[in-house]
């Protein structure tokens, strides 16, 4: 015999089972509501600015970071001497028209290479001292750079060279090197020194050593080319670039003046060709010069004789022949004349 309750369990679905289904849906909805509320940002309550208007109008003290970042130095017992700072500031880079940034970097490297501190990198010393070696427009350029934008010495050199050595200047110097020519009455030593100055002014010219030697050799006069070949033993091309450079350097140290024509003084009163038959060219040249001088010289002017006038009596005779000074009659005149003399 089945009871009512048991019939519900066997024949019909349980009421507890049916009641759990909506509960699951409600749980999902509650989870979704929690996630939705979590996505909504709750307003952050900030405190009101309690500064006065005077404080708000003051200039900010932030944003003054150094452009150059000095690496951390663990050593503390080092100090730059006053004489070193004076040496660094003795030749500041001021961005003049003929000032070379490459020369400034070379000069700065020579100074800083003599500074040695234990456990202090030399690059850090250069970064600390470089701002003291520039002034004027160069100092303004460095101050305009973004804060903490220069981290290494190589970065500083690259920015400095690119700022004050533009590509147009590089192109002009490369053209001067390529079109180099020995000037008139310029000795071999002078030409070689001028050519090296052009190479030194543009260290990043990109020309190989062979190109440099070929350009310089072709720029010489035929006389200097022959003398250079003689110094090389017959032909400079038979030498290696290193040996050819050594020969040029050795020849440039011998500072011989260029052979110049000697001008001989020719007298306009030279004897006729019959008196000097052994030098007919000199006689002809002397006659030509004499004829040219006679043609261009103005006619001689007559010089008017200057008559002497006595300062005592006004007569046409010198004062020392004046009769008025003789005797005792005109003693006062004689005294005046003697005093005048």
Task: Give a quick set of tags describing it.
341 residues, transferase, 50% helix, RNA-directed DNA polymerase, nucleotidyltransferase, Non-ribosomal Peptide Synthetase Peptidyl Carrier Protein, Chain A, Retrotrans_gag_dom
Brief digest:
By secondary structure, this protein is an all-alpha fold. It contains 15 helices and no strands.
Helix content: 40-55%
Largest sheet: none
Q: Span from first to last CA? A: 184 Å
State the shape.
flat
Number of helices: 15
Radius of gyration: 50 Å
Secondary-structure element order, as H and E?
HHHHHHHHHHHHHHH
Mean pLDDT: 74
DSSP strand (E) fraction? under 5%
Low-confidence parts:
1-22, 259-268, 270-277, 328-334, 337-341
Oligomeric state of shown chains: single chain
What is the CATH domain class of the domain at 82-165? Mainly Alpha
* CATH architecture assignment of the domain at 82-165: Orthogonal Bundle
Strand tally: 0
Q: What do we call the CATH topology of the domain at 82-165?
A: Non-ribosomal Peptide Synthetase Peptidyl Carrier Protein, Chain A
Domain Retrotransposon gag: 129-221
GO molecular function: RNA-directed DNA polymerase activity
Protein name: Reverse transcriptase domain-containing protein
Keywords: Nucleotidyltransferase, RNA-directed DNA polymerase, Transferase
């Amino acid at each position: 015999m089945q009871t009512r309750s048991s019939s519900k369990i066997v024949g019909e679905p349980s009421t507890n089972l049916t009641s759990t289904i909506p509960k699951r849906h409600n749980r999902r909805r509650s989870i979704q509501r929690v996630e939705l509320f979590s996505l909504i940002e709750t307003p952050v309550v900030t405190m009101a600015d309690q500064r006065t208007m005077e404080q708000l109008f003051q200039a900010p003290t932030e944003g003054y970071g150094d452009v150059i970042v000095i690496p951390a130095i663990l050593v503390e017992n080092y100090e730059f001497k006053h004489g070193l700072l004076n040496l660094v500031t003795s030749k500041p880079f001021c961005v003049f028209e003929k000032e070379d940034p490459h020369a400034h970097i070379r000069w700065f490297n020579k100074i800083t290479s003599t500074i040695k501190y234990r456990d202090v990198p030399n690059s850090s010393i250069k970064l600390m001292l470089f701002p003291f070696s520039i002034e004027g427009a160069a100092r303004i350029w460095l101050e305009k750079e973004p804060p903490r934008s220069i981290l290494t010495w190589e970065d500083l050199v690259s920015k400095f060279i690119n700022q004050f050595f533009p590509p147009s200047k590089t192109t002009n110097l490369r053209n001067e090197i390529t079109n180099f020519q020995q000037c008139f009455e310029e000795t071999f030593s002078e030409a070689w020194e001028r050519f090296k100055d052009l190479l030194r002014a543009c260290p990043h010219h990109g020309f190989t050593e062979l190109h440099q030697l070929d350009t310089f050799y072709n720029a010489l006069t035929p006389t200097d080319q022959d003398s250079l070949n003689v110094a090389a033993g017959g032909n400079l091309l038979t030498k290696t670039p290193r040996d050819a450079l050594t020969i040029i350097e050795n020849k440039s140290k011998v500072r011989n003046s260029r052979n110049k024509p000697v001008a001989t003084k020719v007298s306009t009163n030279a004897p006729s060709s019959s008196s000097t038959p052994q030098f007919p060219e000199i006689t002809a040249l002397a006659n030509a010069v004499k004829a040219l001088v006679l043609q261009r010289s103005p006619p001689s002017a007559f010089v008017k004789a200057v008559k002497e006038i006595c300062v005592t009596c006004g007569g046409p005779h010198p004062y020392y022949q004046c009769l008025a000074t003789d005797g005792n009659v005109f003693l006062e005149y004689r005294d005046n004349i003697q005093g005048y003399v």
